Amino acid sequence: MLDAQRAFVDQLVSFVRDESVDVVLIAGDVYDRALPGVDVVSLLDDALVRLTGTGAQVVLTSGNHDSAIRLGFASRLLERGGVHLRTRLAELEQPVVFPLGNDPGAADDPAGPVLAIYGIPWLEPRLVAEQLDAGTASHFEVTRAATERIRADLLNRSATRTVHSVVLAHTFASGGISSDSERDLSIGGVGAVPLDLFDGFGYTALGHLHGRQELSDTVRYSGSPLAYSFSEAKHNKGSWLVEVDASGVTGVSAVLWDAPRALAVLRGKLEHLLSAEEFAWAENAYCQVTVTDAQRPAQAMERLRRRFPDTLVLGFDPEGAATTAKASYSSRLAEANDDLSVCCGFLDHVRGRGADDAESAVLAEALEAVRLDGVSL
Fold this sequence. Notes:
This protein is of the alpha/beta class and 377 residues long.
């Protein structure tokens, strides 16, 4: 998907430049694995160079797919170039601070209003609970401890000036809608954190769930820029443009990204899928197809790909299967009266379609050859 990712970066850079965006927030996952490929690392390098080249700053946290240590390498050096990495617990109380106000001298005003952007990286409870003095090793407790540290720092900074806050976090907040592409946040299930942990912050920008969604007026997921599973076929991929001035957050608007290729989830009998005009739009899409014929059609994938070349997933869900009792394979074996019946029964069992005349002839010929060789089955 590297070409699709490059196309997204092109859109992002153009939008940042055209809208004069001051800060780009990336709430993890930056990569899809702890040891990303060289070409993917190169793409991130190119993206950061181009984004900062527009004059924007970048604030970035790590997600559960990332290696926080590797991603955070050279963070102090990168900060000089406008890329602010927040991947370590020690950086929870170290916000990236931006002056607010239209006055050219606002940046030099020690008492002027500022925007403080805090980053909460992915917190693995078993690894960070002790360092955060959390009560238990749970997602709720470690996130609560992290937000308490941020609130304490905010309170201290607000004693001498007006501070508006934005929190960047990679977590699963309750109220979010998950998709197949996210990994479970805990062994045996998903550990969600309640929205009220983010009460009092001017805005919370969340990462982890792939669907862009609004959990409250001040808590939103941007979602992934591309679809990474067919469960995301109906997502409208995009981001949020947040307006902040000396009075705080003044507006949030949706931003949409163009998908390089549509996702199609198709279902029906094979002949209908191959001939119906209603599916013409999916001929250039990535397709997940479920065939519902009572018997599994022969060469289904090959035939589908003649019309839908990018069929990636093929499933079978025969009509009436839920109401038709299926005999176990052992029962089929018990009912078979000769070797050919055993072989044909096996085909029917594993593919949902019995042997046709040509296949039966081939099997019979093979069995006869074995018999003539004197081998007993």
